[in-house]
Amino acid sequence: MAVQPEASLDDAIETGIRSTREQILDEALACFAQAGYEGTSLNDIAAGVGIRRPSLLHHFPSKEALYQEVFEHLLSDWFDRLTGAIAAPEEGWDKVELVLRTGFRFFADNPSYVRMVRREAIDGGQHLAIDLASVLRPMFDLATEYFTREMDNGTFLRQDARQLLITGYGALLSYFSDEPFLEGLLDVAPMSDAALAAREEHVVDFFRAALVPRPT
After folding, report:
1. How many CB atoms lie within 10 A of CB 66?
2. How far apart are CA 89 and CA 47, in angstroms?
3. 119-136 pLDDT, tens digit each
């Protein structure tokens, strides 16, 4: 890809809607999701944006720093969305449905981030300066406590709450991380609006059947 000339990078440069820094983050996410950390170079990212490597280094001093910011920025966004759903006034099944739909729609908006998370999980988090499992553990424990409490109250059917959460993790994330494989199975584009709507409803229906007691 031809490298385009640049304006000054003393401040964030607006090109269209996205600044150069934002374009770097977008391109880095796409590259890390596609090729992984080891398979991506700063030259790849710079070429994708249409800048030179020294200009990229003006914004991010290293590949490690860029990777960290991409990951943590989207992790923070995900937490913000989930925290909002958890804090909403809904209770019982309505709360679970809200959280499921919130998570699903975040992943639908950010499929490359899902692939990046899955790669990092497989690699054991070795490219991050944070322990991802430790960061996610408080939310996992909070959800476990919620399900257990609601099961004890008779709101939900009795399940192993921790296993249920792991099932939910796989049900939500694998659809987006395995998109190319699924297209060959489904004969439809998994990221089309119709396919996403069908998948979202299936996930919600699956958990409703597993949790909500049927009328007697």
Report:
1. 24
2. 47
3. 888 877 778 877 888 888
Same-domain status, 102 and 187: yes
Quick one: pLDDT at residue 13? 36
Q: Is residue 140 part of a domain?
A: yes
Distance CA 117, CA 30 (A): 12
Condensed to tens digits (0 to 9), the pLDDT of residues 10-29 reads 333 343 457 899 999 999 99
Token pair listed for 203: 């996930």
CA pair distance 167, 149, nearest whole angstrom: 19
Half-sphere exposure of 75 (CA within 13 A, CB side): 18
Start-to-end Cα distance in the chain: 65
Among residues 133, 111, 107, which one has the least CA distance to residue 120?
133
- Is pTM, for the whole model, over 0.85? no
Q: Are residues 140 and 186 in the same domain?
A: yes
